[in-house]
Amino acid sequence: MGTHGFETRAVHNGRHGLGTAHVPPIDLSTTNPLQDAEVGTASISALAQGAAEAENPIYARLYNPTVARFEQALADLEGLPEAVGFGSGMAAIAACLMAARERGGHVVAVRPVYGGTDHLLTDNPFGLTVTWAQAHEVGDAVRDDTALVIVETPANPTLALVDLAQVVRAAGRVPVMVDNTFATPVLQRPVLQGAKIVVHSATKFIGGHGDVVAGVVATTADWAAAVRRVRIATGGILHPMAAYLLHRGLQTLPLRVRAAQANARVLVRVLQEHPAVQGLAYPELDPMWPRIRHQMQGPGSLIAFDVGDAARAAAVMNAVRLCTPAVSLGSVDTLIQHPAGLTHKVLSDAARAEGGITPGLLRLSVGVETLADLRTDLVQALDQVVNRAAA
Question: pTM for the complete prediction?
Answer without folding.
Answer: 0.95
